[in-house]
Design brief:
Shape: elongated
Number of strands: 9
Distance between the termini: 24 Å
Strand order of the largest sheet: 2-1-5-6-9
Number of helices: 5
């Protein structure tokens, strides 16, 4: 990823990048080959496994992307954080141009297919538990709700895998190259917007100050 110096995360920002992966865990998995394959997937991040953590996910067995894993190439998982358009009308300075502000994280590593039924169940259960926890106070749905034949069919229909992260990089293009007055004008306009994404960008910009 092209990361100009003003938009780079500071050194040793692993925890902050991991926070973003967890907050925006519906990512894009890109696998190389003669023709690129991509899949849109929810990921689980296990911070305890590996220096940068390990991603866990699954795809439908009918999805051909998992067949790329057996050759052992490195894949890329992209996590898109908040993003918003910024109008030059919001800046204090004149003669400026529009831009797009955003935060993104890229994670690289070699995927490993989880062959055992126990590992597949654990991967599915962990993802479900994380997503159901966000729906509290609703009682969480669990795989135990499924009859054993239905659960067995579900597991046969998916391929679970994990990616120990070998490289983790992030970019936050949040008007750091503009004056304090320009940034203040953009933040004010984004905060006034009714769009949740725009407000999230404004908060991210404020966090840099």
């Amino acid at each position: 990823m092209y990361i100009p110096e003003p938009f780079a995360f500071p050194d040793h920002a692993t925890a902050e990048l991991q926070d973003l992966v967890e907050a925006y865990n519906f990512g894009i998995l890109i696998a190389p080959g003669k023709v690129l394959e991509a899949a849109h997937l929810p990921f689980v991040l296990d911070r305890s496994r590996g220096p940068l953590g390990t991603l866990i996910a699954h795809v439908a067995r009918a999805n051909p992307i998992w067949r790329r894993f057996t050759a052992g190439p490195e894949v890329l998982a992209v996590f898109q954080g908040p993003h918003a358009y910024v109008s030059p009308d919001w800046y204090a300075g004149r003669g400026l141009v529009p831009t797009w502000t955003y935060v993104a994280v890229h994670a690289y590593g070699v995927p490993r297919i989880l062959d055992s039924g126990i590992a597949v169940t654990a991967a599915l259960s962990r993802l479900t538990a994380i997503m159901e926890s966000s729906l509290a106070p609703k009682p969480p749905w669990t795989l135990s709700e499924l009859a054993e034949p239905r659960l067995a069919a579900l597991k046969r229909g998916v391929v679970a895998f994990e990616i120990e992260i070998a490289r983790l990089e992030g970019k936050r293009k949040l008007n750091q190259n503009r004056t304090a007055a320009d940034r203040a004008g953009a933040i004010e306009a984004l905060e006034a917007s009714g769009a949740p994404e725009a407000r999230a960008v404004a908060r991210a910009m404020l966090d840099l100050d």
